Automatic annotation (TrEMBL):
Keyword Calcium attributed: no
Keyword line: Amino-acid transport, ATP-binding, Nucleotide-binding, Transport
Name of the protein in its database record: ABC transporter ATP-binding protein
Tagged with keyword Transport: yes
PANTHER family according to UniProt: HIGH-AFFINITY BRANCHED-CHAIN AMINO ACID TRANSPORT ATP-BINDING PROTEIN LIVF
Domain of life, per lineage: Bacteria
CDD domains: ABC_TM1139_LivF_branched
Family: Belongs to the ABC transporter superfamily.
Domain (ABC transporter): residue spans on this chain: 2-235
Molecular functions per Gene Ontology: ATP binding
Organism of provenance: Pelagibacterium flavum
InterPro entries from the UniProt entry: AAA+_ATPase, ABC_transporter-like_ATP-bd, ABC_transporter-like_CS, BCAA_Transport_ATP-bd_LivF, P-loop_NTPase
Amino acid sequence: MLEIETLSLRYGRHLALENVSVKIAEGETVVILGANGAGKSSLLKAIGGLARPVAGSKISLDGQSLLGTPSHKIPETGIALVPEGRGVFGDLTVEENLLLGANPKRARATEAERNALIFDLFPRLAERKRQMVRTMSGGEQQMVAIGRALMSNPKYLMLDEPSLGLAPIVVTELFAALKRVQKTGVALLLVEQNVSISLSIADRGYLLEAGHIVGSDTAEALKTDAAVQQAFLGGT
Ligand code: ATP
């Protein structure tokens, strides 16, 4: 269980998150819905050790606190982040980018097996394994970013707006791959503005508004929730 409790985060005087509590069980898919600037990326950054929360915040994995764990050690704990903007290395090939993800100790024994799994998930990466990543399309680069995160053998995969800037057909393809990742038992923590597709793969969701959790429910219930409809799905 990944548990975030009373998490607050500030940038100077700006309180980006206040008293945020979110739980993700093993194998579960949870989506955080929120408008631009709501604090979604900040939440993932705090879990990933990329931003330091205010005292009194708690982030733990299976009862062990993650606070103070530097970002480069987080993959060792079984948590992987696909950051907004992907964070891939454009001047390296697909293969080289994937290999960078296999660095954690927990990943080394299963490197070949995981590589095969990723090429099975994204056949396009197998066809282009020697291609420089900067010459690839946005969708392909997102596949590389997800593939690299999966190379670390995560139990929890965090994705920051994977659909951003991609054509609808590519988004559909990516989410089909994420469904297959779910079936391997990996828990997903998804931050998205594409509400309908993310609710279609999620078990539960939270609504984040101006740094506060203002609601949470099952994905089924959120699909028909009036506030969600109004805020995100173009309802009235
Ligand atoms: P988006 O979808 O636009 O990325 P978000 O929900 O992910 O939005 P965050 O990126 O977490 O939101 O930002 C939350 C708030 O904190 C915003 O008001 C943002 O301007 C501010 N913020 C984020 N990063 C920093 C930073 N490094 N320094 C100062 N303020 C920041």
